[in-house]
Design goal:
Layout lengths: L4 E8 L1 E2 L5 E7 L5 E7 L2 E2 L9 E4 L2 H4 L5 E5 L5 H4 L2 H4 L7 E3 L1 H13 L8 E3 L5 E4 L2 E7 L8 E7 L2 E5 L17 H10 L1 E7 L15 H9 L6 E4 L5 H13 L3 E5 L1 H12 L23 E5 L9 H6 L13 E4 L8 H13 L3 E3 L14 H11 L1 E7 L1 E2 H13 L4 E2 L6 E4 L6 E5 L4 E5 L2 E4 L3 H12 L1 E8 L5 E10 L8 H17 L2 H4 L2 H20 L4 E8 L1
Parallel strand pairs: 2-21, 4-7, 7-8, 8-9, 13-14, 14-20, 15-17, 15-18, 16-17, 18-19, 20-22, 27-29
Antiparallel strand pairs: 1-3, 1-23, 3-4, 5-6, 6-25, 10-11, 11-12, 12-13, 23-24, 25-26, 27-28
Helix pairs in contact: 4-8, 5-11, 6-7, 14-16
Length: 553
């Protein structure tokens, strides 16, 4: 008789930071019931032109969706919840989350056209529920968003603690503190495995408390006589509260700019949070407040081109402007990969005479992820038999695995997306690898990042493109003058000698071909394409994306 197994399969978020999609399976091989934990996205950058949103490929679990019991969301950050808006229909199962996250999940699903369906199942903080062979309990943690949860997933094979994103903060300002009693209880019950956040594994000590920021920000803001602008993540509502209290202490009125703040505040108020936060004014009130009495909170801390700070720095914000004597405080960390975008905005602000303050200049930010001492404390309380680091690049996972073994964990795995890990006390091991990938959201569809659609656009951005249209008779003789258009290669109002050479390439290519080949459209087109592309490579070192439009008359 085949033994039932408990397996863990990450399709996103292992070997990378972001785009989390985790699977737990229990049952006989190829007959497992499945639980999905988180369904997130990541964002495009300079290496993915034209692609703003990138999603994990859910094909593996989509093929098994009839055995999926549900999606459990640990918290409402986009890299854990964002894919619901794009690809819930690929799995079509209930979504379980705590109240604040549920408010945002319903909004996403409504925008995606699924609002008429009863998809989101709201579970109270600390609540538990059954999904097939899985008993899932929400364990309250602290993080840089409201209601972050770890999951205690109980199965016949044992209990797995899946942490989501977390930190240990005794003063989170808004929301509950970490349920340490629940962690101790789990440790006493016995934990088979812990799947854990690795983001800050290289940071010694502890992350620090949100509560400690208030006095630091108050002291900093009090130094300025001009406008003060603070930029942070819209999802970090505790930071929003901290900034607002500091502003009030300094006698400043608060203007908020950024649509995402509104969505977050609405969800917070609907669930009883932020009710004692100082009042915010709409951004069109900024003109009426003296500079020394104004504090602006805005989105755009990561250099997002459409966020409020980008529009302010470029002078295109219709209500807010900054200049000499003003300051922008970056109350956030720089996410790896965003450096260029952030520096571009900071340089634009500096040219206007605006002072820039970051976490390297003053105590203006605490992270939402655990440093080394917090990881050690969690291992001490939970005492898992197996450790599986996730939510980190490969180097993070290696360091986390070493720390886990230092804490007495018997087996620590360093895995990446697609690895299938059998979780059992006696002989846990990697037993397989499944296909994974990334999808680019293109308008209303998801296409593989390796598809010709995405790769051609990328090649065209970096190498330029050329389209040559020409008419030929039945013998392959060119009729009239070809029409050539290029993007990013030749100046249409100049480069006359180069245009002449390009036309010569076309005529010479056709004339040099045997009459038999000139009568074959496919052969003629391919010869023209190769010779034009070769000419661009010889002239500019560019592998131009080249297309031939041939009309046979």
């Amino acid at each position: 008789m085949t033994k039932q197994e408990l397996i863990f399969v990450p399709l996103g978020g292992a070997g990378e930071i972001g785009m989390n999609l985790n699977l737990y399976g229990y049952g006989k091989p190829e007959e497992e019931d499945w639980l999905i934990v988180d369904y997130g996205i990541t964002f495009g950058d300079d290496t993915t032109p034209g692609t703003d949103v990138i999603l994990p490929d859910p094909t593996f679990i989509e093929q098994r969706k009839d055995r999926v019991k549900g999606i459990v969301i640990t918290h409402a950050h986009e890299d854990h919840i964002g894919a619901l808006a794009y690809m819930w229909d690929r799995v079509q199962c209930p979504v379980y989350c705590t109240p604040f996250t549920a408010s945002l999940a319903r909004g996403k699903l409504k925008e995606a056209g699924f609002g008429h369906l009863d998809i989101v199942k709201e579970i109270p903080l600390g609540g538990s529920f059954e999904l097939g062979p899985f008993n899932v309990e929400f364990i309250t943690f602290t993080h840089s968003i409201l209601e972050p949860n770890a999951l205690a997933i109980r199965t016949p094979e044992g209990t797995v603690v899946h942490t989501g994103d977390w930190k240990l903060d005794a003063g989170p300002v808004v929301g509950r503190t970490t349920d340490l009693d629940a962690l101790d209880r789990l440790g006493k019950e016995g934990v088979l495995a812990m799947v854990c956040d690795s983001t800050n594994v290289f940071s010694p000590g502890t992350t620090g408390s949100e509560e400690e920021l208030e006095s630091s920000l108050t002291e900093l803001i009090s130094q300025y006589d001009g406008k003060v602008c603070v930029t942070c993540f819209a999802s970090n509502l505790a930071r929003l509260h901290t900034i607002a209290v500091a502003a009030r202490e300094c006698g400043r009125q608060i203007v908020v700019s950024g649509r995402s703040f509104g969505r977050m505040m609405e969800a917070a108020h609907a669930n009883g949070y932020m009710l004692d936060t100082p009042d915010f004014l709409p951004e069109d009130e900024a003109h009426h407040i003296p500079d020394d009495k104004l504090l602006i909170i805005c989105t755009g801390s990561q250099g997002e081109p459409r966020a409020a700070l980008a529009r302010i720095s470029s002078g295109n914000h219709k209500n807010i402007s900054l200049g000499d004597g003003d300051v922008v405080i970056f109350s956030s960390r720089t996410i790896p990969g965003n450096e260029k975008s952030i520096f571009r905005i900071q340089n634009e602000l500096a040219r206007k005479g605006v002072e820039i303050v970051t976490a390297s200049d003053h105590f203006v930010h605490v992270s939402g992820h655990p440093a080394q001492d917090e990881l050690r404390e969690l291992f001490r309380r939970v005492r898992p038999h197996i450790a599986i680091p996730v939510h980190g690049e490969f180097r993070h996972l290696q360091a986390h695995a070493a720390l886990a073994e230092e804490c007495g964990v018997k087996k620590a795995f360093v895995i990446e997306n697609g690895h299938v890990v059998k979780l059992e006390k006696d002989l846990p091991c990697i037993i397989d690898e499944v296909e994974t990938g990334r999808l680019a959201w293109e308008g209303r569809r998801a296409v593989p990042m390796k598809s010709e659609v995405v790769q051609t656009r990328k090649r065209a951005l970096f190498n330029g493109s050329c389209v040559a249209s020409l008419a030929v008779d039945k013998d392959g003789t060119i009729l009239g003058e070809p029409i050539i258009t290029t993007e990013g290669l030749l100046d249409p109002d100049g480069d006359d000698h180069l245009w002449d050479q390009l036309f010569d390439i076309i005529f010479n290519t056709v004339e040099a071909m045997p009459r038999r080949d000139r009568k074959d459209d496919a052969v003629l087109e391919e010869n023209l394409r190769l010779n034009i592309r070769r000419w661009f490579r010889n002239q500019f070192g560019k592998r131009a994306v080249t297309h031939i439009h041939l009309l046979r008359v």
